[in-house]
Design a protein that fits this description.
Elements (H helix, E strand, L loop, with lengths): L7 H16 L9 H6 L1 H5 L6 H4 L3 H19 L6 H11 L12 H9 L4 H9 L7 H6 L2 E4 L6 E2 L2 E6 L2 E7 L4 H4 L7 E5 L2 E2 L4 H5 L7 E8 L2 E8 L1 E2 L6 E4 L5 H11 L17
Antiparallel strand pairs: 1-10, 2-9, 3-4, 4-5, 5-6, 5-7, 7-8
Length: 275
């Protein structure tokens, strides 16, 4: 935003997209950020059908944690310091001196640059497997995270059209598909007794959340069947928006974060919709 490449609402859409993807990745509750970074070459770049459930993505989660760290520093310093100060300080104290950064040195570098202790923050967010909470960070600059505007059918499966068949690629461990016994590589051939070709997603969208439907599939050439209850995904699409009545402090914090922009200039995705 400082360089003018993004306006604040563009950046908000970028954040909203990545928060949505992070919330829809059950693996963040299994693998922490530190382990994801350490295991990159043996796991992240060798994905399997279960990667979504067993791993987090240190690029994506790391970027979101960096945003939270920036907001934490801003709140604790009354917007006098930010992540920028740490990045400049780290550059001067490491790269410019021809050395790398020790694994346990980040907290000390942040404190030296900003005067803010972040030891507890780093331990929680690098070693923790919790769902990241953005409420306080966004509220500091007069924003909030809005859930989907309407309920849409959800089963928690990634489906691909395989030469006219509906083949399952990935199954979320926390979704209706997993509870119903669906497995990766199953080919769903019928829903409620009606033949399915490559249109499984559209067929499922015909059913309301809470509705139970029967299914039939081929699993390694063996016919299997069961029932599935169509669910709702509370994180289907998350959007960052300004609060209705921002305080003077929130507006000032927003200007500090966006280098002089105003909350009133924020443009939501719905503003682009035709009347």
């Amino acid at each position: 935003m400082r360089a003018g490449c993004y306006d604040p609402s563009d950046h908000g859409r970028f954040l909203g997209k990545h928060i949505t993807e992070e919330r829809n990745r059950p693996g963040h509750r299994v693998q922490n950020l530190g382990d994801s970074s350490f295991d990159t070459w043996i796991k992240l770049y060798r994905p399997t059908s279960d990667t979504l459930n067993s791993q987090t993505n240190y690029y994506q989660r790391g970027a979101l944690v960096a945003f939270l760290l920036d907001m934490y520093i801003r709140r604790e310093s009354d917007d006098e310091r930010s992540l920028d100060d740490f990045m400049r300080h780290m550059w001067a104290e490491t790269f410019k001196k021809g050395r790398g950064v020790e694994e346990d040195e980040i907290g000390a570098l942040v404190e030296a640059a900003t005067g803010i202790s972040v030891s507890d923050f780093l331990e929680q967010h690098i070693l923790g497997t919790h769902t990241l909470d953005f409420d306080d960070a966004l509220a500091h600059v007069g924003l909030y995270l809005r859930g989907p505007k309407k309920e849409t059918p959800f089963v928690g499966a990634t489906i691909r059209d395989d030469r006219g068949d509906s083949r399952l690629e990935r199954i979320r461990i926390d979704g209706p598909a997993h509870a119903a016994g669906w497995m990766a590589e199953d080919v769903i051939v019928a829903i409620d007794g009606h033949r399915v070709r490559g249109d499984l997603t559209k067929r499922l969208e015909l059913h309301e959340p809470g509705e139970t439907v029967s299914w039939t599939a081929f699993r390694r050439d063996r016919l299997v069947d069961g029932t599935i209850e169509v669910g709702v995904n509370p994180n289907a699409k998350l959007e960052i928006l300004p609060v209705d009545s921002p305080s003077d402090a929130q507006q000032a914090a927003f200007r500090a974060w966006t280098h002089g922009r105003e909350l009133d200039d924020w443009k939501s995705e719905t503003d682009d919709d035709p009347a």
